[in-house]
Amino acid sequence: xxxxxxxxxxxxxxxxxPSVSGQTTDVSLKGLHLLCHNPIPIGxxxxxxxxxxxREYPIRIEVDGTVVRVDHQxxxxxxxxxxxxxxxxxxHKVVLYNAQDPDQIHQEIQAxxxxxxxxxxxxxxxxxx
Length: 129
What we know:
Elements: E1 4-5, E2 9-13, E3 20-27, E4 31-35, E5 45-53, E6 58-71, E7 74-79, H1 85-98, H2 102-128
Helix pairs in contact: 1-2
């Protein structure tokens, strides 16, 4: 997935570690890179809240994720395939607005929606058997 340079505040919650906050360096429809002072271990499941906009009227994009890479002051997180449609729409707009090639972003979101739809329809067929 195309990554765009973007600096937004992120609050991260994990069931096994204390809350972490940091700032993104880049974001895609599938993941992000987060600068922080206390990264959590690789493989940790977490809930991410990207906070955009003003302090009075923040926009919150909430997604689940998994830590896939860590160094001493940052970590990379993969965004879960299942994202609430409102959060996915906001994330899509943020990435699209900051992308150098908006057509590529449109293709990526269409592919993601198609994969999700296929999982839903295939899962439904399996449940009927």
